Amino acid sequence: MNMEKHKSVLMIGPFPDPITGNSLSNSIIFQGLKKRGIPVDFVSTATEFSEKLGKFSFSKLFFFLKMYVYICRVFFSSVIYITPGQTFLGVIKYSPFIICSKLLGKKIVLHVHGNYIHQEYRGLSSLKKKIYHFILSFANKGIVLSPMLRNNLEPFLDESDIHVVFNFVENSILEGRPVKKFHELRIIYLSNLMTEKGIFELLDALLILKKKGIAYRARIAGNIPPNLKERVEVKLQAILDTTEYLGVIKGAAKVRLLEWGNAFVLPTYYLTEGQPISILEAMATGNIVLTTNQGGIPDIFSKRNGYFIEKRSSKDIADKLIELNMLDQGTMMSFSNTNMKHVKKFTEEKFVENVLKVINAVC
Question: Model-level pTM?
Fold first, then answer.
């Protein structure tokens, strides 16, 4: 069936703000479908940023109760595209939209932005497992971010209905890049400042570098959860002469940061980590990447792009940064050029087209 015959695609999931990989992805898809003349509407489920994954709170409950008033939009849409949560509660809060869509005969596409569903499902009690399976099995098609993450949907969908769509780099970042400078170690961190994203290990590693007399400059950007603000500020105070916190940045400010840096560090051990867009952005701007073997990262990153670092290890981050700092300019430039070439296939257009192929496949 041709998409033009559909009344619309309804997208249900987080949209900016706050900015996360998931909300940015939804925004890019929404704009991409509009650009292609496909009628599209959305219901944003974005809530205040928090580290409390899958935890019940009355504020979340009241927020989603208000969201359910928009369930009427399902009636006027033919394809329901949902980026659900991954915990039991994360799935349950989307269940009214999913069940209503199924009862009305709508086609459902689930796009999973992470690598936790399979773990959550295995650990649920018998009753919760049945409910979880019941809801997710209503989907007609599923999308995961990389081949390593297919197992998240395998208990619920036929193998042929699970599609891999890699993440993307925004057009503004892929456009012509200035020559990368390696005359000094310039470290950047661009993600939400969450414990499991490794922010405290990084800050401790920067203090190690300072104590060892290693010359560097660092810039850190991202949202700080309210419960971590004081702890982050204390850590930053010890390295203020070498490290700057930029707050939440986007657009041209984000591009400037990526262009300024030459070593991008993401020491993530985030439980639901999928495939961080920030890693692709860092490579697109010629940065040498230091990150962990977490989630679907190994599907987009290898030792050709930088260094794998140990999870929860400030010492290993510091050691790898010292090793990087000792490389000659030619080797650094080789890493940089390899990374910029590597990400040319991860465009916004290709990302939207691949998602659209899955949407078309349910029609």
Answer: 0.90
| Fold agreement between 3-168+347-361 and 172-344 | yes
The residue extents of the domains of the chain are 3-168+347-361, 172-344
- Decide yes or no: CATH 3.90.105.10 for domain 3-168+347-361: no
**Number of Cβ atoms within 10 Å of the Cβ of 152:** 27
Cis peptide bond prior to 18, omega within 30° of 0: yes
pLDDT in tens, 146-169: 999 999 999 999 999 999 999 999
Give alpha helix (H) positions in 145-219: 171-174, 199-211
- Omega before residue 17 within 30° of 0, cis: yes
Query: What pLDDT is recorded for position 1?
Result: 42
Contact 332, 182 (CB under 8 A): yes
Give the strand order in the sheet containing 162-164.
Answer: 40-44, 9-13, 79-82, 107-111, 141-144, 162-164
Nearest to 27 by CA among 8, 14, 46, 39: 14
Residues 6+ apart with CB under 8 A from 22: 13, 14, 83, 113
